[in-house]
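Kindly review both lines to help learners:
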Amino acid sequence: MTTADSSVTSGPALPHGWRRSPLKDLCESIRTGPAMRASDKGRTQADGDVPIVLPRDLRGNRVLAADPVAVPAMPRERARTLEKHLLREGDILIVRTGTVGRLALVTGEYTGWLYHHGLVRLRTSTEGPARAAYLAAYLGSATAQGWLRDRSVTAVIPSVSTRTLGELPVLLPPAAEQQTIGATLAALDEKARVHSEIARLTGEYRDTLAEALLTGVLAPSHEPGGRA
């Protein structure tokens, strides 16, 4: 531990083998996304350039990007100069301006993408003390989210600096327990995402069906509980 911050060193007694540590000591890097230039704008993933994760894409602790034609992208020649900002599986993205604290654990399909300046990327080391899935789950907890809200600057738009983020105290169990906790909560996040997607598609189907029924394009079934 490199700091004597009382918010990290103090608190209730921990279970055997657990410890508290500032977030910065658990990360290989904490890096803000690159700023966009005027010349970078106007491109999308559909153009074949390097796509960019936006803050709006972080939902349900996962990255859920839009259709390629709606995903902004960086020209490849410019992206080649930003290699240190490329994402890889296991990175954690967290919103630093606006809805501070919303986050996502990056999955394999977003490897090689860039990320927006309004996001911070946390990268853990495979040899380090923290497992990415556990850390993402902890950062989404009520304790961590409350800590971030309390320390956000709210002049116009709420924001949190990478320095402040690095001081966030994390409760860290032994590696085996981290793996179990992270895997359990990640599985529940995935179930929630699937149910959310089913609800979205069901809503779209309902709207399409309603339009057809209410305009006479489709005749309703007269059987109780029947399908049109």
